[in-house]
Structures
1.
Amino acid sequence: MKTILLILIGNRKQAAVQVQKVLTGWGCMIKTRLGIHDGVMENCSDEGLLILELYGDRKKMEELARKVSLVKGVASKLIDISIFDGNKVEKKLTQAKKVTRKAAKQ
C-alpha cells in the first residue's frame, strides 16, 4: 500500500514559502515529491498541486496533512492506495469458509 498526500495551493506566490517551511520540517517522511502547475514564464499559473509519497508513522502523516492545510489558501488530502489482488481475496475467502465448516462440525 502507498500513502499519498495531495496538496492544492491556491495562491502559490503567497503560500508556497509557508508550505515549503512545513514540508522541510517533515522531510524525512517524504519519499517522493512532484510539483505541478499550469503554464510557464509569463503565463505561469497561480495554482499548484504537490503530490507527495509518504513513508512512516500514520499519525505523523495525518499531522503533516493537517499542518499544511492550516496555511491560508491550501487544501490537503491523505490517500491510501493499493493494487487489488483478486487471488489474495479468493484465498482468504476459501480459508474463512474452511474455518467456518470446521467450526460447524464441532
2.
Amino acid sequence: MKYLKECIFYRDCPVFRDGYERHMTPGMTERQVEKMSSILEQLYAGDLAPAERNIQGNEEYDRLCRESVQEIREFSKKLDEQSRKAFEQLLEHYLELTYIEKSQTFCDGFRLGAGIMCEVFQGRPAADGWQ
C-alpha cells in the first residue's frame, strides 16, 4: 500500500480514485484513510466483494432493469404453472451463465490491469510510440 500511495496514478487514475473516494467520508483526513485496512486486508477479511457491487448512477441500466422485471412479471402471468416453472428454470440458468461471464470478465480485466502495471513498473517501452 505504501508504494501504491507514492504512485503517480494513485489519485489520478479513476480505478484507484474510486477505491480511495469510496473510503473517504466527510470529515475524514487523508491520514485517517491511510490507517484503514489495505485492499488486500479487506479482501482477506471478506469486507471487499466485487461481485456484490451494484451498478449505480447509470440511468439507462436502471431503466432497462425496471423494464425487464416488468416484462418478466407480465410474461409469467400468461404462463400455466408448468410453463412458469420451466421459464423460472431458464432464467436461473441464464443468471448462472451471466455470473460465470462476469466473473471471467473481472478476472481478465484484473489480469490485463496487473499486466499493464507490471509493464509500467518494469519501465518497458510502450508499444506504437506511446511514451
3.
Amino acid sequence: MEYLGIIALLLLLCYISYPGRVRKLERKVKKLETRQSGGSAMSKLISQLIGKNCTLKTDENLDFSGSSELNCTILDADDEWIQCRCTDKKGNVTTRILRIDSIEQVLLPNEPPVQ
C-alpha cells in the first residue's frame, strides 16, 4: 500500500513541470513557423511605423498602466520585439519593450490630408 502512495507521488512530481515544457515547445514551434514563412506580417507593418505616434492595445499594458491601451511613439522594432516610448497621465516618460505577438491592435491617429 505504501508503494502505491510513493508511485503516485513520483508521477505527480514528473508531471508538475509539464505545462512549462508545453509552453517552451509552443515558443519553439512558433519561431520555426515564423522563420519558415519569412517573418510575421505584424512585424513588417510595425517596422513601417517607426517614429510615429500610435495606440497599442495589448493585455501586457494592464501591468504597467492599468489600461489595455497604451499611447506611445515607436522607437524600434524587429521580428519579435517592439521598443516604444510612452508618457503616462502624470507626464512620466518610460521606454518599454513589448513582444509583437502580444499586440492585439494598433490604432493610428487621424492625420490631416496632405495638400
4.
Amino acid sequence: MTVRAERGSIAAEFAVVLPAVLLVLVLCVGAASVSLQRIEVQSAASAASRILARGDGLGAATGAVGRLAPGARLAAARDGDFVCATVASTARFVAARTAGVRLTGRACALSGDEVS
C-alpha cells in the first residue's frame, strides 16, 4: 500500500472512536455527580436527625434538608430513644434520573428530651 492509499484513514478512525470516548467520559462525570449527590443526601439526613433530636422541630429540619440537598424530601420517625431522619431524592444526572436512580440517606441521633 502506498501512502496515498492510506490518506484520510486517521480521520476515519478518529471519527469512529470519538463518540465512544465521549460517551465514557460523560458517564464517568455523571457517576461522580451522583456520588456527590449521595453525600449531600446523607449529610442532610445527619443534620436533620441532629436538629430533630435537639427538639428544634420539623420545620427547621426541613429547611436544613432544603439547603443541603435541594429537591430532597424528609421523613422523620422515632425509634426508641432515637430520632431518625430519612432523606430521599432522585438523581440530578439525566441518565441516572431516566434509569430511575433514587438516592436515600438515613441517620439517627439520641433524642435530647429523653436523656436524664
